[in-house]
Amino acid sequence: MKGRKLLMIPGPIEFEPEVLQAMGMPTNSHVAPDFIETFGNSLELMREVWKSPTGQPFIVAGTGTLAMDMAAANLIEQGDRVLVISTGYFGQRFRDIMDRYGAKTTFLKAPLGEVVSLEAIEKELKDQQYKALTITHVDTSTGVLVDPEPIAKLARKYNTLSILDGVCSVAGEKINQEEWGLDVVLTGSQKAIGVPPGLALLVASPKAMHVWKNRKSPVANYYADWNNWLPIMTAYEERRPSYFGTPAVNLIVALETSLKIIAAEGIEKRVNRHFNLAKAFRAGISSLNLEILPKSDEVAANTLTAAYYPSGIEGAALLSKIAQSEVVLAGGLLPEIKTKYFRIGHMGSVSANDLLTVLSALERALFKSGHHIEPGKSLQAFQQRLLKSD
Ligand code: PMP
Fold first, then answer.
1. Is pTM beyond 0.70 here?
2. Where does the pLDDT of residue 330 fall: very low under 50, low under 70, confident under 90, or very high at 90 and above?
3. pLDDT digit string (tens) for 271-317?
4. Is 198 helix (H, G, I), strand (E, B) or coil?
5. Residues 285 and 299 sit within 8 Å (Cβ to Cβ)
6. pLDDT tens-digit map of 210-220
7. How many helices and strands in the chain, by DSSP H and E?
8. Average pLDDT over residues 172-198
9. Is the CB–ligand 1 distance for residue 63 below 6 Å?
10. Which ligand 1 atom lies nearest to the CA of residue 169?
11. CA distance 154 to 167
12. Run of H or E residues at 327
């Protein structure tokens, strides 16, 4: 398509044509039998993707931030202690949300490009009784990946709810909500789930639902209150009409389509595809002598890459040169280093072809900016790494 740009930011992403077509269908009534079926199927498919057979899924119009807000509004009461484990910008956001609901938050901040140690987390949990802890699975500002499994286990050990911000990870990174014992896993539609922006998606464990049901104070947010949404989710799953706030009909039709694509690929295969492409992509970036923000491969996300600009290169000018090749990348997000680095999203429908296109556009832009590069070097490094994983 002439003038078509390749959108390689960490969300929104490139969407599958079937998903976009599904979204463009004439808008149905939210109580029409076929829409009820679509909504019900989507809830059931979420349990599969989250690996949470006994979890309670919620699909609500909003963004990832609403899903974070919903977790906090429903589970936290005035004075509850919350441990926020932060690996970047979105840790701070969770702290702000928790504070808004009157939580007493403790903020455990990882050094830039690293994760918080399990020892530091356990020490906090031992010292005081926390109602909940939050983990950012992939912080989109730093590209740092946290392993939620051992943290969720610690949370269980100390009778603390675990809340996973999976906005940049669900359907791209390995998640096993029930087996790992995560109490909330939340996301937004526009990332690896592969649906245009506008849906807040969340699955709560039976324990989280129990804690919510036994609250002492009413939920302090009307729209986010599960009292309003649980009957709706239950009704759609039982294939009955119901209404609280008008569902985002077209987005939910698109969601069902995308979840079916994810299920057909197979979640393990999908996570592996992300893993192999991310590894190959980082090999390509490193071959150009660009420094990757996460300090090691083990803590580097498979859904995006964050890398520093080479010294002497003006970031905005480089990104606009890349845009001249019809490839859209994202600048930095973390305030303290915002102008020093950039980010490339590689999730959802991403293919080797997309990433080869990114690397070649990056090489040309670096060359035009006066940075010494050997044309094709990053493509070779990418191919070599990818062939190893085939
Ligand atoms: N958490 C993370 C890790 C994110 O990447 C984002 C979005 N970039 C959010 C939360 C907030 O999501 P939204 O922009 O959809 O509100």
1. yes
2. very high
3. 999 999 999 999 999 999 999 999 999 999 999 999 999 999 999 99
4. coil
5. no
6. 999 999 999 99
7. 14, 14
8. 98
9. yes
10. 3
11. 22
12. strand 327-328
Calculate the CA dihedral of residues 194, 196, 200, 202 and round it to 10 degrees: -10
Residue-level pLDDT at 389 = 87
> In Å, how far are 47, 237, 288, 326, 366 from 322, measured between CA atoms?
39, 46, 15, 7, 9
SS3 57: strand
Q: Which of 167, 195, 304 to mutate to test the pocket of ligand 1 (most atoms within 8 A of CB)?
A: 167
140 lines ligand 1 (CB under 6 A): yes
Average pLDDT, the chain: 97
Q: Which pair of tokens denotes residue 151? A: 């943290």
Cβ-based neighbours of 113, under 8 Å, separated by 6 or more: 142, 144, 293, 294, 295, 299
DSSP β-ladder status, 199-204 and 56-61: antiparallel
In whole angstroms, how far apart are CA 156 and each of 33, 68, 161, 184, 344?
41, 20, 7, 13, 35
Distances (CA, A) of 332 to 142, 282, 293: 8, 17, 11
**How far apart (Å, rounded) are the C-alpha atoms in residues 219 and 374?**
59
Ligand 1, atom 2, lies closest to the CA of: 167
How many residues are present in the chain?
A: 390
H-assigned helices in the chain? 17-23, 33-50, 64-75, 89-100, 118-127, 148-157, 177-180, 206-213, 226-237, 249-265, 267-287, 315-324, 352-368, 377-389
